[in-house]
Amino acid sequence: MAFVIMMPFVASSQLLTAKDSVHFLLDTTIGIMQQKALNAHKVDWSGLKKELKEQTANVKTVAEGGFVFTKLYNELSDVHGAFFYKDTMFRSTGKIRNLHKINAVTEAELVKGPKIVAQMITPDIAFLRIPVIVAQDTASVDKIANRINDSIMLMMKRNPKGIIIDLRLNQGGNMFPMIAGLRSLFKEGIVSDSYSHTVKEGEGKVFFRNDSLITGYYKIKINSFTDYSDLPVAVLIGPSTASAGECTAAALTFRNNTILIGEESMGLTSGNEGFELLPSAGFNLAVSVLKDGQGKILYDCIKPDIEVEGGDNFQLLSKDEKVKTAVMWIKKQNK
User: Domains (ranges, CATH) in the chain?
Assistant: First the structure.
């Protein structure tokens, strides 16, 4: 997920040449990366800065010098972040771990756009699909979190023996309304954690207190919920589960009676922060990496407890192999 932090504005009229513009953006970006980047300690910043300035000494446009930002992301091994200049994006040339494993069935479903799906798939098992959620402003975040919560509470009136949380189509956005909407499935306490070399231990924690999710950015209040924290929860993941989707999957590992089913997630388990340098330029940067409920750092992806390769059927859930496995697991928990 990403947030934008406004940096001091420098008028473009002050940047007289393309070289000046590239070097201003380069200096500013490197300054932030040195302080914030997850892998900043692995880079020879002095040597790299000198090299990149020499390579951009004769550029005629900012876009022509954009390769330096690709170089920065490569040095940081950051495949999650990206630099934006006008309508052009520069990012690492490194491969995202499981991006190539997204199957045609999943791709076809993704193009239909994000949609929350809540339904009983058997008389006693609930199903909730949480898609991409990109909302950032407080009002929208609160509204979506409560919409997810309301969907769960409505299904809970049917007294299900368990619930399936489907994150296979969740490629990211803002993790906080996703997790906040699951309030009824958690006890109070920590529900998400991350590691960063720039923050003290504990500062990356997200937790529920009473009716609210408390984060460094939001306090998201859930209007009405009931404690179903002991309910069996099966979480479906796959190679299209990415970024905030992976954060939500990791958060669910903080509760008991939970299992991950499916395939390895995409591999964007870092937390991004956003920085605006000019009205026409800014970047996202990996600044932290997820931990699971056992304190394990998730450097590349989230692995399922029960692997089910393929067999996805988003239209007929009764035919979906991952859903069928989840149903069997939930039934076993109720024997």
Answer: 4-90 (no CATH), 100-266+301-333 (3.90.226.10)
Distance CA 48, CA 29 (A): 13
**Pairing of the two strands 117-122 and 125-129:** antiparallel
The DSSP code for 220 is E
pLDDT for 1 equals 46
Residue with tokens 């992301």: 73
Q: Mean pLDDT lowest for which of 188-202, 217-231, 320-334?
A: 188-202
Angle at 64 between CA 59 and CA 66, to 5 degrees: 110
Task: Say whether 163 sits in a helix, a strand or coil.
Answer: strand
CA–CA dist 283, 240 (Å, integer): 23
Phi, psi of 194 (to 5 degrees): -150, 165
Upper half-sphere CA count for residue 276 (Cβ side, 13 Å): 11
Amino acid letter, 266: M
What residues have CB less than 8 Å from 323, skipping those under 6 apart?
121, 127, 164, 166, 236, 313, 317
- 228: phi then psi, degrees, rounded to nearest 5: -120, 35
pLDDT digits (tens, 9 = 90+) for 27-69: 999 999 999 999 999 999 999 999 999 999 888 888 889 999 9
Phi and psi, residue 56, nearest 5°:
-110, 15
For the stretch 115-140, pLDDT in tens is 999 999 999 999 999 999 999 999 99
Would you give the distance in Å from CA 301 to the centre of its chain? 11
| CA neighbor of 266 nearest in space, from 192, 168, 178, 165 | 168
CA 234/CA 165 separation, integer angstroms: 6
Q: Is 217 helix (H, G, I), strand (E, B) or coil?
A: coil
Angle among Cα 147, 153, 157 to the nearest 5 degrees reads 145
Give the integer Cα–Cα distance in Å for 323 and 261.
9
Question: What are the start-end ranges of the H helices in the chain?
Answer: 18-36, 45-55, 67-76, 104-110, 138-156, 175-180, 244-252, 321-333
- Contact present, 312 and 105 (Cβ < 8 Å): yes
